[in-house]
Amino acid sequence: MRAHTGLSNMYLLKQSVCFRTFRSIMGNTDSMMVQKRMARFRPEEWSIIDGVFDRLQGGSGASGNIGAVKTLKLEMLQSSMGDLASDSMLKRIYQCMCSIDLGNTGQPGAASGPGREQLIVFLADTLRGTAEERAPLVMVMSHNAVGVPDVVLCEQVASFLQDLISAVVQILIRRGRLQGWKPEQMGETSMGVKLLAEQMCSELRPSDQGSCDVSCLEDWIFRVFQVSLYLEILVAEGLNVSLNSWTAPSLLPPCRDTHWKDLKCLLDIPTLMFLAPRLPDSYSAPWRLVFSTHLHGESFTKMVSGLMHHGPTVLLIKDTKGHVFGGFASQAWEMKPQFQGDSRCFLFSVFPALRVYTATGYNDHFMYLNQNQQTMPNGLGMGGQHDYFGLWLNGDFGQGHSRARPKCTTYGSPKLSADEDFTLDSVEVWAVGKPPQPAEGEEEESKKSILNVDPEVQALMELTGKTLHSEGFSELEEDFD
């Protein structure tokens, strides 16, 4: 009974503290806007939200007492967020706070800087707001000046997004949330930032003059979830708003069993942030590099070994003219002269533009893999038809094609390579799902080849000049065991 009474008293004390905090905040404001924004947070979070203002000022003001220091300065944001966001991004945030109109007089604004109430509204709208409430904030931050403009240009939105994405990448790096990925062994982050910003901007529906008003931005924010997600991450992490109801989202899939030492990965962090959410929800297994020309050489046989027996995979290709593209296979590849796969497969481009092309429903030519046949094409294909694939690698591994006039029938993709017929520069295969479980007794048998079991057959093959394809498979398996 005493324990129960003690818990009840603790609960009542906690509620009393929360209520006093709420009254302290509300007692200093006549703004209905601020009261409505504070109501979005749990009672135990009120003191956290109110305390951000004091913390930014270095503890110079007491909670609820706005008489001591009434406004924030840009230098205060730089002190709190300078290691995560660029000066340009911090200026955007500061000017956005200054532009918040509380609807009452005597409030700080552009001249003196944002006050406690502007900060509360900013936190509420970025962390718990609707697309309608976030749209004016994004407009001001894109405009990069105090005051809410009537319209902004798509180029201004792209510049804002580059600052925002760069800050999110810095958060992942500095807060140790890379999940095993190594940016120094990957593609150029700055280029990935530009490409991801351009991709997100491509979802805008501007006027014929290329401008966006508030309703255009509201529609865009509602459809492109990353805008709100990235803004929420920057504000929560940068201002250290530790709400019990908020957990930092994982933007990157885990990376495991990857030999980074000699690898120059075709992916970069922003590209990975773009591709990973496009995979079906069920593919949450760590990504594992199972083939790379940098590590295993230019061998179609070894690439096939990486594609088969590892479940769903992501194939990345770079041609000699710098275009980077690939495809997602939703299931393990099989060696057979028929099409395979399902509508969860897709093609994508990384450079010169980030795009994903999903199944159109026109046909089921999702995946094709064949080797050593005289009557059927030998190589790897995705989408389209024989001799006219959306993505094709020849069985000799040096050449490929991406043909679409005007688009691939299976995926609706355009030409992905620089030229229809391209020469390979490098290839990577990433296993991204749980590998299929072999049937009982099948695993040991699959590791055995007649070429390994019977030395006489091996000798005969060598005398006739035949390639020991199974040796390549065995070597690759050993590399990743």
How far apart are the first and last residues' alpha carbons, in Å?
A: 59 Å
Total number of strands: 14
Instruction: Assign a percent range to the helix content.
Output: 40-55%
* Gyration radius, rounded: 28 Å
Mean pLDDT across residues = 84
Q: Helix/strand/pairing class, anyone? A: alpha+beta
The general outline is: elongated
Q: What is the count of helical runs? A: 18
Residues in β-strands, percent: 5-15%
* Uncertain ranges: 2-27, 59-68, 445-478
The largest sheet, given as strand count, sense and whether it forms a barrel, is: 12 strands, mixed
Describe the structure.
There is one protein chain. The chain has 481 residues and is α+β, with helices and mostly antiparallel strands. Helix content is 41%, strand content 15%. The protein contains 18 helices and 14 strands. The protein has helices spanning 2-26, 32-38, 46-56, 74-81, 87-98, 116-128, 131-143, 154-174, 189-201, 214-223, 225-238, 269-275, 293-296, 300-307, 442-447, 450-453, 455-463, 469-480, and strands at residues 152-153, 211-212, 255-256, 287-292, 313-319, 324-329, 336-340, 346-351, 355-358, 367-370, 379-385, 388-394, 399-401, 421-431. The strands form 2 sheets. Strands 3, 4, 5, 6, 7, 8, 9, 10, 11, 12, 13 and 14 form a 12-stranded mixed sheet that branches. The protein has a two-stranded antiparallel sheet with strand order 1-2. A hairpin with a 2-residue loop joins β11 and β12. α5 packs across α7 (131-143) and α8 (154-174) packs across α9. The termini are far apart. The model is unreliable at 2-27, 59-68 and 445-478 (pLDDT under 50).
